[in-house]
Amino acid sequence: MPGRARWLTAIFLTLTASAIGWEIVAAFDGSADTWPWTQLIVRYVPEPVTNLAIDVLLAWLPAHFLTNYADARKAAAMAQPQLVPVTPTQTKHPVRAVLRTVAAGAVAALPLIPLALAGVHLDGTAVGVEIIAVSGGITRLLAMPAVNGWLQQYVPFLAASPAKP
Predict the structure, then answer these.
(1) How many Å apart are CA 50 and CA 32, to the nearest integer?
(2) 164: helix, coil or strand?
(3) Average pLDDT over the chain, rounded to an integer
(4) Would the pTM of this model clear 0.70, i.e. be above it?
């Protein structure tokens, strides 16, 4: 930011902070000698002028902020290096992804077999939470490179991608 713009920004922010600070102090001061900024505006600025200023600010300020934030996002995106899109293995090999999910769900359901055999009545929520928790753990385990390497060697149809020839 050039020197002149820096000074103007500092002056503007100082005046804004002073006006807001004055308003807050006056609101909590309780003294009849301290007037809030709004009372000064009401006393010295005609109501139609104040209403027009408020209307202009309400119409302009949101659009102004949205435009500046969009520009800032665009500048930040331009500053970041562009990555080459990589097709995930789930897209390249959808059947494998389905088989892995089914296998994770089957392993997740294994702890429930003794409960089902014993005839214990469970709340459906508890069963669902257990299946989701164990499925999540199994899925995370399957995503590990070492596990995927083992799967490629011993159970290739469950590997994330086919073994390299």
Answers:
(1) 24
(2) coil
(3) 78
(4) no
